[in-house]
Design a protein that fits this description.
The complex is a heterodimer of chains A (about 140) and B (about 400). Chain A contains four helices and four strands, in the order βαβαβαβα. Chain A is an alpha/beta fold. A four-stranded parallel β-sheet of chain A has the order 2-1-3-4, sandwiched between helices. The two termini of chain A are about 30 Å apart. By secondary structure, chain B is α/β, with parallel strands linked by helices. Chain B has an eight-stranded mixed β-sheet with strand order 3-2-4-5-6-7-1-8, with helices on both faces. The chains are: A alpha/beta (about 140), B alpha/beta (about 400). At the A-B interface, α2, α3 and β4 of A face α10, α13 and α15 of B.
């Protein structure tokens, strides 16, 4: 059995940019880490902070929120809303001493397949360094 | 309600001082009686003591004889006023002119609910009163007479007593704030044996005019005394925030406090801001097939029931903390004495500061999650990219 820790990362990808970007990365045969489990949402503005928290508390080692670049949102302003929600989440994590690094927000457009591959690989490495999420073994949560 | 901020800001310069003859309660009620008689408003929402019991509740008062049971500042806060007000006004079109006498934290909750479209403020006059705090509900229920007596003493001296609710001990927003919150404020601080009426909006000014009061009296004494107390309480609050930030520096501090939770959801039901008809955590969305639970328990070694205790609290936090008015209703409602109000207030303080937002201060300030700027929070989203962008600009 391989002892190397493979993180479990949940990615919320917006349909119009990041998901298409991820698709392009796949069809271009770029290397995407197997640790990333993607969930398609129609817009990054659809990501309820609860989605991120639920993933985190139920043991995901990392949560990626991805959307269109500011100004490029298919619905005009969804990603700006997502950013504000992320700031709020960040502040809650900060105050309660939870690991902020386990959640993140990236902008990836539909054509940025290389960026998608870069970002996911980098984040996976970062999470590998951090180790498993303590909540995944915590019973009393 | 006024949209002109500059206009309303000028209001609290002068007020109307009224001498107290019998008691503060009596003086305040005389004003309301007059207003009801002259049909300035049709009904008044006010806390009242249920006859022959020690219970406090809210009444929408129209019959003047019922002023006997009403109490502008009850020793406890049973139901948060924001909740009481929204229960009959969330569908709008009241038709009646209603005034509501609220504690400042309750009025702030009303303003937040107004932004969430849960109250109708069109025909509503919000009246607040300088608040000495309230006693913990559980203490009061154990010995109503003793606690009511000690509350009387505390409120006369405006003492920051240890026996007050923790939320009230750490409250620095117990009086009128510099914003477009309530229409009228009743100042109890300042000169002894005087009650000061302060109009805080054109509507409030109208109300005073209709009652035949001229706002000519100086507010200096009330202001100096208020600011002195605000300073003292801000200091107290800061030390409380520091202490609790230290306690929750690592997640165990937070989790250990909440491990006492019995998942009754009282905090949610008592919270004025939690207005959802169906909470996610009461829904079927969180139920899975049995084998999922078995798998989870195998992975962890054991699985704790009820499920999602921590997720409930942090999830609720993520939904309402930006509007948290730190009223402490959640803490009063908790049957296992979790300092949930203090935790939320602490997280709220930090999160609201991030957005420069004070819940319940101004009616015009939009909720932080309902607005955005195109260029903001670059440093928070992904730090590296922010630097890249900055260097690109330099190039």
């Amino acid at each position: 059995m391989n002892d190397k820790f493979t993180p479990n990362i949940i990615g919320f990808l917006c349909n119009w940019c990041s998901y298409t970007g991820a698709d392009l990365a796949g069809t271009s045969r770029m290397k995407i880490p197997p640790s990333l489990k993607t969930i398609r949402v129609m817009c990054s503005g659809r990501i309820d902070p609860l989605f991120v928290l639920e993933s985190f508390i139920k043991g995901a080692d990392g949560v990626m929120m991805m959307g269109c670049h500011p100004g490029d949102c298919h619905y005009q302003k969804g990603n700006y809303n997502a950013r504000r929600r992320y700031v709020m989440l960040n502040s809650i994590f900060d105050t309660l001493g939870l690991e902020k690094k386990r959640i993140g927000l990236w902008w990836v457009s539909a054509s940025e397949a290389t960026r998608f591959a870069k970002v996911t690989n980098e984040y996976t490495k970062e999470i590998e360094k951090l180790g498993p999420n303590p909540t995944s073994k915590e019973i009393f949560l | 309600m006024s949209n002109n901020q500059k206009e309303t800001k000028n209001y609290p310069n002068k007020g109307k001082s009224l001498p107290v003859e019998k008691s503060i309660k009596d003086t305040v009620f005389n004003i309301f009686k007059k207003a009801l008689e002259e049909n300035i408003f049709d009904a008044l929402l006010i806390p009242a003591k249920v006859p022959d019991t020690d219970a406090y509740s809210w009444i929408l008062l129209q019959d003047e004889s019922l002023f006997d049971i009403a109490d502008p500042l009850p020793p406890v806060m049973t139901v948060q006023g924001g909740r009481a007000l929204s229960s009959f006004s969330k569908n709008g079109e009241l038709g009646l002119k209603i005034a509501a006498l609220l504690r400042p934290c309750e009025a702030r909750a009303v303003i937040e609910l107004f932004k969430l479209h849960q109250v109708d403020l069109d025909n509503m006059t919000l009246i607040t009163i300088d608040c000495p705090g309230a006693m913990p509900l559980a203490d009061y229920m154990n010995d109503p007479k003793k606690i009511a007596d000690s509350f009387k003493k505390i409120s006369e001296k405006w003492e920051i007593s240890e026996s007050l609710r923790p939320a009230c001990q750490n409250c620095h927003r117990f009086s009128l704030m510099d914003g477009t919150g309530p229409d009228l404020h009743i100042g109890l601080l300042g000169e002894n044996n005087k009650v000061t009426l302060i109009a805080n909006s054109p509507e409030g000014n109208d109300l005073l005019e209709k009652l035949g009061f001229e706002s000519k009296d100086s507010l200096d004494k009330w202001k100096t005394e208020k600011e002195k107390l605000v300073k003292e309480k801000t200091k107290k609050r800061e030390s409380f925030l520091k202490e609790w930030q230290e306690k929750t520096k690592n997640p165990d501090g937070f989790f250990n406090e909440l491990n006492k939770c019995i998942n009754c959801h009282n905090c949610m039901n008592a919270c004025p801001i939690c207005y959802c008809q169906q909470c996610y955590f009461d829904s079927q969305m969180i139920n899975f097939k049995p084998e999922i639970y078995l798998k989870k328990s195998r992975e962890k070694g054991a699985l704790r029931f009820p499920l999602n205790t921590m997720l409930f609290h942090i999830g609720r936090m993520s939904h309402m903390v930006l509007s948290c008015v730190a009223c402490g209703a959640c803490e009063d409602a908790c049957p296992v004495s979790i300092p949930v109000g203090r935790l939320f207030s602490m997280v709220g303080d930090k999160t609201q500061k991030q957005f420069d937002y004070v819940p319940g201060l101004n009616r015009e300030d939009p909720l932080p999650l309902q607005i955005f700027k195109e260029d903001e929070f670059c440093e928070v989203e992904t730090p590296n990219e922010c630097e890249e962008k900055a260097t690109e600009e330099v190039k």
